[in-house]
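Notes from the 1:1 (GR / supervisor)

We went over the backlog. Supervisor wanted to see one worked example end to end before approving the batch request, so GR pasted a single chain during the call. The sequence is below; no edits were made to it. Supervisor asked that the structure be written out right there so they could see what the output format looks like.
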Amino acid sequence: MIVALPLKPQFSLGPLILLATVFLLFLSGSATTELLAYDRYALESLETWRLLSGNLVHTNGYHLLLNGAGLFFLWALHGEHYRPMLFIKLFLWCGLGTSLGIYYLSPSLIWYVGLSGALHGLFVWGACMDIRNKIYSGVLLLLGIVAKVGWEQWQGSSDEVADLIGASVAIDAHLYGAVSGLALFILMWVMSALYAAIKPKQVA
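Structure output shown during the call:
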């Protein structure tokens, strides 16, 4: 069976904008990475942009390729749920939730970069959207991401991946990103239900 990819611009523009942004930032060099990375000490000096920008920079080319592959996988799975501005907003909120989770709940994590936390959030949001639209493979995807994040919390990060990207894998970021994606879905679902409840009935 041939799987149809969501190639239409309204499905792919958001991920393409994100991919182009992180690629250009990577080409800008290590000075840009240092300026934009999540850095607890810099945040305490009110460099608050790092709460968002840290999700857009990477340690090395392998790190970028891994996250780029993850982004492609998410688009292939859930691109039909994306609209450009919706996708960008979801990514930014998941990234912010990831960074705030690190700041308040993982004080020992001083420095963090990469898409992975926010991508976990997008994965959870997309799986929940599948379930809402009666695409029941979303249940398996949701159980899979819960198992992955739970395994990481229990067993720790992969040494092989850490060697490849030149940094420890921030497993707490994956947890906070996933929780952020779930919270966003619930919030959007509740707001949609409230809007439907109070929307004036159209007169025939």
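Supervisor's comment: Residues 171-198 form the longest helix (28 residues).
Batch request approved.
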